[in-house]
Structures are given as structure tokens and as C-alpha cells.
Design brief:
Oligomer: homodimer
Strand order of the largest sheet of chain A: 1-2
Distance between the termini of chain A: 40 Å
Largest sheet of chain A: 2 strands, antiparallel
Bound molecules: manganese (II) ion
Number of strands of chain A: 2
Low-confidence stretches of chain A: none
Number of domains of chain A: 2
Order of helices and strands of chain A: HHHEEHHH
CATH topology of the largest domain in chain A: Arc Repressor Mutant, subunit A
DNA sequence: TCTAAAATTTAGCCTTGGCTAAACTGGAGC
DNA sequence: GCTCCAGTTTAGCCAAGGCTAAATTTTAGA
């Protein structure tokens, strides 16, 4: 009986992980594109205030996904790098799958940004297999 | 430039709508299955305390998705009924699509519970078309 | 070098959605 | 009709993630 509610519990957990996934992914992108990730750029790309971004980054530092010294750039920990790679891979597969079945690029981008966090590894495997065909 | 961040804004909006969608869907289910939706059953099915469910239902009432009198059952407004129907339809299509491409039932249930809220009407149309084939 | 602008941090506010403890109410059953 | 119990509500706590205003630090340019 209580098993019925498990999917909602997992949904709540997914939402807790979401911010971490999107942020480490973004930090990796910025490091690749600009050499380093700065708070201002992170905030700009997410469309939030620097204060909000700063608070989220503070939590991510506490949770050991990133490191940074006051007023300096942000770096991924090894653990953070791993999460970034996995997240980017998942993101790309979901996005490409959507495009493959005929979703317009812009819409695929929006949908993938949300869907990616709710795709299990089992489902991901199946999407990837379809993508290769 | 600021356009780049739109997908994240939409993601945040989707998360605000999520609880409303899942709750009205559940209220409709309970009404169908037990004649009426009671707070205790709603809380049980979501795996949260009655206090949490009560607070969420209070907000949904404020936002005119539901009505209820103190210590009484919960009812959907016309607007709430419409949202429940649309949500259930979207949920079903996503779930069935996942099963169709080979995702095991239990996993499809979990993934669909999260993914459904991030599937645009354009993507939904495409999933439905594939489902019919 | 010094100063002003830009970047970052801090303070303090709000809403949502979690929780436990405790109070209250309606109704079932004696 | 009364009692008591299950169901509901209220009070009060917490964390996350949104904001603006203000303080602080870094850095670029004259
Ligand atoms: Mn995302
Ligand atoms: Mn649903
Ligand atoms: Mn759902
Ligand atoms: Mn989500």
C-alpha cells in the first residue's frame, strides 16, 4: 500500500538533485567556454539574481560539488565533474531523442531541460538505443 | 542573449504548476474511486503528513483549483476539473509511450510521474501520434 | 597609485513545502 | 444523548530558492 506513494517520494528527491545537476553542468560549460566560471555569468545564464546564484552555489559547496574562495572563480570537485559529465550526457540524449522524433529544436531544448532530471538510467538506455538506429 | 535563460524560467514555472497538477489529478481519482476525496487519503497517497497536504490544499483553494469547507471533503472547481483531465491525459500518454518503447512498467510509472510536467503540447502531440502506430 | 566601477557577499525579506506537537471537531457507537 | 476517536486544523519549526538594498572586495583605467 505505502508502495504506491514511492513514485512521489522519488519525484521529490529528483527535484532536490535538479539544481545541482543544472549548476554543475553550467559551471563546466563556462569553464570550457571562458576558461573559468564566475558567479555573474552563472547568474546571467540562469536568469536569476547573483544573490540567488550565490546562495545555491554556497549549498553546492557545502555538499562538496564545487569549491571556491571568496571573490574568486568557481571550480568543480572531482565528484562535481563526474556529476556534470553524467548530467550533460543525459541531457544530450534526451534532447537528441526529442529532435529525432520530430520535436522542433527550440521546444526540444525547453522540454529536455525539465525532462532530463526524471529519466531513469533504464529509460535512458532505451532512448540511446533508439537514437543510434 | 537573455533569451538563453528562458528555458530555465519555464522550468521554474513548471515546478510551480506541478503540485497543482498532481493534486487535482489525485482528487479526481479519489472522487471516482471512493465517492469523495478526504484529506487523509490524499496525504496517504502522496506519502506526506496530513499537515503538508492540508497546507498545499489550502494554497490550491486560494488559487481556485478546489473548494472545501472545514472538516469536509475536497471538491474540484470547474477549472480544477479541466486541469485534472488535461493532466491525466498527459500523464497517460507519457506513461504509455514509455511502456511502448520498452520501459518496464514500474520504472515507466516513476519516470512518467516526473516527466509529464515537462512535456509541451507539441511534444505530447508527437508522442500520441507514435502511440497510435 | 588611486579611484571608480564591477563583482561578490551579507542582511533581511518572502513563499513553498517538508515536519512534529497539540488543539479542535464531527460522527460512530454505546 | 454522550463519549471518544479518527480526522482535521493550527502553531511553530526548518531548508530551499526567489528577491532588493547595502556593504565589501577586486580590478581596471587614468
Ligand atoms: Mn535541467
Ligand atoms: Mn500525474
Ligand atoms: Mn506528476
Ligand atoms: Mn521536475
Amino acid at each position: 500500500m505505502r508502495v504506491k506513494s514511492r513514485k512521489f517520494t522519488q519525484l521529490r528527491n529528483a527535484h532536490h538533485r535538479e539544481k545541482a545537476e543544472d549548476y554543475v553542468e553550467m559551471i563546466q560549460d563556462l569553464a570550457d567556454q571562458q576558461g573559468e566560471a564566475r558567479l555573474t555569468d552563472v547568474a546571467k545564464r540562469f536568469g536569476v539574481s547573483t544573490v540567488t546564484a550565490h546562495k545555491i552555489l554556497f549549498r553546492l559547496q557545502r555538499e562538496k560539488w564545487i569549491t571556491s574562495k571568496p571573490y574568486r572563480a568557481i571550480f568543480l570537485t572531482p565528484r562535481g565533474k563526474r556529476l556534470a559529465m553524467e548530467s550533460k550526457r543525459r541531457h544530450k540524449i534526451v534532447y537528441q531523442f526529442l529532435k529525432k522524433i520530430g520535436v522542433p529544436e527550440e521546444i526540444a531544448q525547453i522540454d529536455a531541460e525539465g525532462m532530463e532530471h526524471h529519466v531513469s538510467s533504464e529509460t535512458l538506455k532505451i532512448l540511446r538505443r533508439r537514437l543510434k538506429k
